[in-house]
Amino acid sequence: MDWLRQLPLGQYVDGEKGWIRHLDPRIKFAWALAFLITPILATAQWRLSLVALLLLLTVASGLPPRIWYRTLMLLMALSLLVAALSLLLPASRTLPLAAQRPAAEWRDGTNDQSLRPQSPPAGAWELLRWGPLQAGPLNIGPLVVNRASVKLAFNSGTLLFTLVHSANLLLLSTPAEELAWTLGWALTPLVRFGLPAEELGFTLLLSLRFLPLVQEEFQNLVRSVATRAVNFRQLGWKASFALLLASGERLLANVLLRADQGADALIARGGAAADAGQSQLVERAGTASAGLADGAALAARLGLNTASGHPMDLPNP
């Protein structure tokens, strides 16, 4: 089974179906940054609304479901797993033992109540309060699930889903050349301060081109281990861990070899690949800028005609 075709994670899938493919890359880059930045200090309602908006945008994007369905299901399962693990983590704020003074010292010392260790509020141990109904805390063996752990699980799951799926949707619908040009365009004001915007854009282009090679090497390594029918129960923990370390070392060696070959090919061409990539970026930039300029000119003319009271004459076909 070709996993790269079944799960195109972080890879552009060529095609004409879907309105999101024809959207200006700068607009897609802007909303991707909004999805990446706004959940950091947001409330629970805002995080949940971002997840719902991402799901709605994915369904209404016009992309074939075979492209994003399996990846979306896998990401949702991973987010739920992370949320479940975070739910069982101790998230209550308790004072360390060094900060808790014995009662004899309080009797002999000051009576200032502000210096006494404060116990956590009663609401921190409640999962839900709805009028007279209360739920929590929930005891699962030695673990206690309270409001803080539920909040941690909710924030972890929604943050992971929002960050990964927003970036994956951007990479699925935008070619690497357009993303590299968009990054260079966004960093253009910083060129006067000595920031190499074109070099950073070309570096991003090479990184996006190199990502499928890394996934292919990982897939080939997993296939090689699976075809040998390794029985991990018979190997034991020590031998299994050694096998995993050897597989990771082999993966790193193959990835570095691919990178070395790519660098040698780029040096041998004398920058021809870079020039070709820059020409493609300039061509795509000219097309996108022309579309934005035409739209702005049309909107400005419609506004002027509406303000003057004269309708706009359209040419007969």
Structure, explained:
It is a single chain. This protein is mainly alpha-helical and 317 residues long. It has two domains: 1-93 and 122-174, no CATH class; 176-312, no CATH class. It has ten helices and four strands. The protein has helices at residues 3-6, 25-37, 44-59, 65-87, 103-108, 147-173, 176-186, 197-227, 232-268, 272-308, and strands at 128-130, 133-135, 138-140, 143-145. It has a two-stranded antiparallel ribbon. The chain has a two-stranded antiparallel sheet with strand order 3-4. α2 (25-37) runs antiparallel to α6 (147-173), α7 runs antiparallel to α8 and α7 (176-186) crosses α10 (272-308). The protein is globular.
Radius of gyration of CA atoms, rounded to a whole number: 28 Å
Question: What is the strand tally?
Answer: 4
Helix vs. strand class: mainly alpha
Shape: globular
> What is the helix content?
55-70%
Major beta sheet summary: 2 strands, antiparallel
Strand order of the largest sheet: 1-2
